[in-house]
Design goal:
Distance between the termini: 24 Å
Number of helices: 8
Order of helices and strands: EHHEEEHHHHHH
Helix content: 55-70%
Strand content: 5-15%
Number of strands: 4
Oligomer: single chain
Shape: globular
Structural class: mainly alpha
């Protein structure tokens, strides 16, 4: 089945998380900068919730079952070699990140998905998210380094995640 897509650029969703994290860091000294690993897991949850709730992909990119859990090659390539993907010492983020954040926030369905995922999983560490995704069927049923089936993600999130949560 072909799915419609909310946004054609996964990096816009990454920027949404970067802006949200940056804002949280400015408000609370205990908030740590978001890492590449953590954002990959959050993107997996965004894709799953979007598919389960709206039957639309949030972004077109494949989610691959890598050793350390679900990952997106484009995001890995962009932030290769970086742990944190937000500079906590900066006064502000780049203009394109803020533009992407505002664009997604102004689309109600997208905003609902990303905010729900952030509220549910945003406080978890990258390590905790890794452990959690490794316990979930889509990652377990996919051969390592292969794309996780969109239908597998959608069905799992419909049956296991949305049915049990407040997302």
């Amino acid at each position: 089945m072909e799915y419609e897509v909310f946004t054609n650029d996964v990096l816009k969703v990454v920027n949404w998380f970067r802006v949200k994290n940056f804002s949280d860091m400015k408000l609370d000294d205990n908030v740590e900068p978001i890492t590449q690993m953590k954002v990959m897991k959050l993107l997996y949850y965004v894709q799953g919730v979007s598919l389960a709730a709206y039957e639309k992909k949030m972004f077109p990119d494949d989610i691959v079952a890598w050793k350390y859990g679900p990952a997106i090659s484009k995001v890995h390539s962009k932030y290769h070699g970086m742990r944190a993907i937000v500079d906590e010492s900066a006064d502000t983020l780049e203009e394109c990140a803020l533009k992407d954040y505002n664009e997604l926030e102004n689309q109600p369905d997208i905003s609902t998905v990303v905010n729900s995922v952030y509220e549910t999983y945003g406080d978890m560490s990258a390590s905790d998210l890794l452990k959690q995704t490794h316990k979930e069927l889509p990652w377990q049923k996919t051969e390592q380094s292969s794309p996780i089936s969109i239908d597998l993600i959608k069905n799992y999130f419909k049956e296991e995640i949305l049915s049990e949560s407040t997302i």
